[in-house]
Amino acid sequence: MAVRDLEHPLSSPSPLPARIAIVGSGFGGLAAVKALKHCAAEITLIDRTNHNLFQPLLYQVATAALSPSDIATATRALLRRQRNVTVIMGDVTGIDTAGRSILIDGHRPIAFDYLILATGAAYSFFGHDEWASHALVLKTLDDALLIRETLLTAFERAEVAEDPAEVARLLTFLVVGGGPTGVELAGTISELARATLAQDFRRIDPAAARIILFEAGDRLLTSFPLASSDYALQALASLGVTVRLGAPVDRIDETGLHAGGEHVAAAAILWCAGTKARPAAHWLGAAAAGNGSVIVGAQCDVPGHRDIFAIGDVASMTGSDGKPLPGLAPVAKQQGHHVGRLIAARIAGKADPAPFAYRNLGAMAIIGRSRAIADFGWSRLKGWPAWFAWSMVHLMLLVDFRSRLTVYVNWAWAWFTFGRGARLLTRRMHDGGD
Amino acid sequence: MAVRDLEHPLSSPSPLPARIAIVGSGFGGLAAVKALKHCAAEITLIDRTNHNLFQPLLYQVATAALSPSDIATATRALLRRQRNVTVIMGDVTGIDTAGRSILIDGHRPIAFDYLILATGAAYSFFGHDEWASHALVLKTLDDALLIRETLLTAFERAEVAEDPAEVARLLTFLVVGGGPTGVELAGTISELARATLAQDFRRIDPAAARIILFEAGDRLLTSFPLASSDYALQALASLGVTVRLGAPVDRIDETGLHAGGEHVAAAAILWCAGTKARPAAHWLGAAAAGNGSVIVGAQCDVPGHRDIFAIGDVASMTGSDGKPLPGLAPVAKQQGHHVGRLIAARIAGKADPAPFAYRNLGAMAIIGRSRAIADFGWSRLKGWPAWFAWSMVHLMLLVDFRSRLTVYVNWAWAWFTFGRGARLLTRRMHDGGD
Asked: Catalytic site residue B184?
């Protein structure tokens, strides 16, 4: 009845010439799958979640502007028509490189002839893992919903709190790290407090909320030109965000954040300061860069394993300018496409394509409504034009048309009204509070 | 700084003539608040959640067609411009009728001159509370997300399960109760399996899923005419749902459901069989109907308490036809509006309005795509016309324009493609599975 073929493709040697396993259904993994669309192979795509997530807009879920379904799509639905792919939701626990199989928690190993690791990055607390229980990060939908829950609950609690010091704490939000995610979050939380929520409370004034961004270095957005960093600093100030430059964090504990002799108690501490690759290098016993990513060859191949590849944030590769390629979606997508084409060529008995070369499409960061920066190499934008370019590019990049339409509706609504449609507390807080 | 006025309005006797407390921000509570818009009173609206929920569409969140933000709106945002209302998120634990104050977990009591209880209903397992841990209910957003998680995870697990019996169990979904919610859920789950997911798996055939609806009585939708019940039965059958009439549930335990000598193991058991009022009657020491609701007078007043009212699902009132008023949104809305007007009249020193009279607007139930029934009294519809009427009425009833627009986009998308945009697993399952 329900079982079409229990022997296929997980539990027996494949009758097809090549078995390709891909771990991770992010930008890189999905690009590789799509590049293998017409390949006579049996592809297995494994991910811990059931969806492809458009991470660049995750901060908008965290700040109640968008819903999870606006920026995430079921991977199975995306790959419905590509019949050579089997999608599996599962936790990879290791790679048996000698036996050429992937170990998955609670399942049989999955055999492969070719393997692509596209497992991405996680947050790193620089050896201070004890800080993790007092700070929030932003990598998954679950992370974003927890941030949303924490932010909205803080205002609710402040409205009924009796102690002025407690009210002040509940209206204080700290962001650590002045990269794109930190800047986006700080600017958007300030807009949430000063515009969206401004008229919604009777005892507290949400516009009095303090948003402080701590950055260890001497400027924001270090991957951008200096002028862009200055613009971001001004834009954040105009949004009411306090920025502390040259302020490395000394400690985060249950009382709050300690940095440069300052101690701040807060309703939320958002950690956006550093990432590390997921443990693919460890699985392979391969050489790793400082952040744990696999140092790959010119074809994104893992040295010593001709048929194993690493792409995206889990790979470390030097660009034509001698600097490491950045942890951006376009890098992952281009690498995924490259490795997919390479494997298809090998299966077809053709020569490998030329080594991977990153085509730099530029970078953008958004600070708030009508405030953004863009660096396309040949052109640099800031303010309105950059914000418009950012909006258009991100709408176009959203993986399916439905998301594009609902995001457009939500954005148009938010732009004209400052309203946010996803201000929902759907779970009781874990500490049993109100 | 952040605190505008800590002495107002929670922590001291009010300087204004009347303090009105309303518990529950559903259809009834919100209608009462709006009817008091121009009243010179200090209104406090208390709810356990931060949102107004459009419950009639909750089953669409549970079946991955809509997102929570499509059918729920932050109560504060809805009441932003009504400056005589303070919204408080909190758990009411009791009413001090002698002291005329509401007891709230972790907060000071809130004093009132007038009180409206609009706390709604919860599910009842008819004295078998031990069944609750093996069954899912559908009342809150959290409930809906848990059902969505359970349904989608069952298909994911079935795809990788090795044991045919386990695959069969994972593709079996049971619904208990043949009222509108049970019929809606059974029909929609079948559509999810047979249309939306049909092409998305490689080893299992989602269309082979079994959906069985158990109803203790001899027909579905007993509040509708007999012909409508027959239509619903045929419509469910055409969608692939098995309906067992005259099949009261004997037991639900960790092995599955027992009914009429039959034992069925399932991935999910959805309990839609009975409700009970939230404990307002108990708080008041008032006379309660069989389902726990407060038996109210002709003005929705609680006998013995001239200034305390109960409305909606937490109230029990007999209609002009001698039958109890049904647990429908229009009843709650009309009662809320009535009590709001009555209190405004008393505060203005005017006479009470005429006793509450329910204006029956009819009832509708949806079975699936293009399949519905409607009974307006003067006209009965089924099939396409009823489905169209249902869609229009529910779109118009959605509380704000933004929801209306995004629901429309999602519905149009789903109608043409059978796709569902909210097929997301955002949390790891609580039992530690994959």
From this structure: yes
Nearest Cα to Cα of residue A141 among B425, B154, B69: B425
Say if residues B399 and B78 touch (Cβ distance below 8 Å): yes
**Length of chain B as a residue count:** 434
The predicted complex's ipTM stands at 0.87
Contact (CB<8Å) B426/A142:
yes
CA distance B245 to B215: 5
* Cα gap B333→A338, rounded to integer Å: 60
Residues of B in contact with A49 (CB under 8 A): 425
Task: Give the list of residues 6+ apart from residue A231 with CB closer than 8 angstroms, or none.
Answer: A373, A382, A383
Range(s) for CATH 3.50.50.100 in chain A?
129-273+363-417
Alpha-helical segments (H) within A248-400: 280-284, 329-347, 384-397
**Contact across the interface for B3 and A204, Cβ inside 8 Å:** yes
Over the stretch A14-36, which tens digit does the pLDDT of each residue have?
Answer: 455 799 999 999 999 999 999 99
Query: Which residue shows structure tokens 């779109």?
Result: B395
CA distances from B301 to B27, B281, B295, B304 (A): 18, 12, 9, 9
Establish, for the pair of chains A and B, how many residue pairs have beta carbons separated by less than 8 Å. Answer: 212
Domain spanning B129-273: CATH 3.50.50.100? yes
Q: Is the pLDDT of residue B179 over 90?
A: yes
Angle of helix A329-347 relative to helix A27-35, nearest 10 degrees, comes to 30
Contacts of B377 by beta carbon, 8 Å cutoff, 6+ apart:
B360, B362
Residue type, B142: D
Q: Return the CATH fold of B19-48+90-123+276-347.
A: FAD/NAD(P)-binding domain (3.50.50)
Intra-chain end-to-end CA distance of chain A, in Å: 48
CB B213 within 8 A of CB B242: yes
Any idea what the Cα angle at residue B338 is, between residues B337 and B341, rounded to 5°? Answer: 85
Catalytic residues of A: 184
Chain region(s) in chain A for CATH 3.50.50.60: 19-48+90-123+276-347
Contact B88 A3 (CB under 8 A): no
Q: Given the DSSP bridges, would you call strands A172-176 and A380-382 parallel, antiparallel or unpaired?
A: unpaired
- SS (HEC) of B114-128: EEEECCCEEECCCCC
Interface contact A423-B74, CB threshold 8 A: yes
Chain A residues within 8 A of B107 when measuring between CB atoms: 160, 434
**pTM of the full predicted structure?**
0.90
- Give pLDDT tens digits for B219-258: 999 989 999 999 999 999 999 999 999 999 999 999 999 9
